[in-house]
Specification:
single chain; alpha/beta; Rossmann fold; Arc Repressor Mutant, subunit A; 2 domains; six-stranded parallel beta sheet; 11 helices; 6 strands; 53% helix; globular
Length: 227
């Protein structure tokens, strides 16, 4: 068994029972703990607080709400899971909508079992993972958002947004791929405090999610230096 996979608690959300069951079975056979399955967004949001998944594998097309709405709902949980989208769609608009809502991974359903397990392992550790061919699309959107944040009125601002030393330190650790719980332990602060710092930083930088924060930190060189 893969020790990295054994530590992962997964919630699988897909409205096709056979597909949902197959994904859950593959994950369990690889050693993960599947803490729940759901065929719609409402059930997923209902069971997630008690199930406490570290990662949610989410389809974009659900019967009661969009996968994007579900991702946004999961992000509001006290201890939000990382999100890996597993969708039949590879359309650019779907990918970008999912990333903006907070997904840090996106695979199309043509991915094989090994690709899925690799993505689950990496997304749970805080990496951004995309089906080959989609990464360039997401990177282009990061650059566009970064340019807009720097130049909201059509003129490039010479002054970067002002982050506190603690916000900068949290951002550096986010960019290094640490989970919120790891950051809290590293800095001897609560998980909730880490979330508050991240949310404040998102607001200041006019960004939407963790993946965009990572790109901003890389662009600004904040991810470098020390442990």
């Amino acid at each position: 068994m893969d020790s990295a996979l054994e530590r992962i608690r997964v919630l699988v959300v897909d409205d096709h029972p056979m597909w949902c069951g197959a994904v859950a079975r593959d994950l369990e056979e690889a050693g993960t703990t599947v803490v729940g399955t759901a065929g719609d967004g409402a059930k997923a949001l209902r069971i997630a607080p008690a199930a406490r998944p570290t990662l949610a594998v989410v389809d974009l097309h659900l019967p009661d709400m969009s996968g994007v709405e579900l991702i946004a709902g999961l992000a509001e949980l006290p201890d939000p899971p990382h999100v890996l989208v597993l969708s039949a769609s590879g359309e650019g608009d779907d990918v970008l909508a999912a990333v903006k809502a907070g997904a840090t991974g996106y695979l199309v359903k043509s991915a094989d079992r090994d690709q899925l397990l690799d993505a689950v392992r990496r997304v749970d550790s805080g990496e951004a993972v995309y089906t080959p061919g989609l990464a360039g699309l997401v990177l282009g959107e990061y650059r566009r958002l970064s340019a807009r944040a720097e130049d909201p009125g059509g003129n490039r601002s010479d002054q970067a947004p002002s982050l506190t030393p603690r916000e900068t330190e949290v951002l550096r650790l986010v960019a290094k791929g640490l989970a919120y719980k790891q950051i809290a332990s590293r800095l001897s602060i609560s998980h909730r405090t880490v979330q508050n710092h991240v949310q404040n930083t998102l607001t200041k930088l006019h960004l939407h999610n963790r993946a965009q924060l990572v790109r901003y930190a890389i662009d600004q060189g904040i991810d470098g230096g020390g442990d």
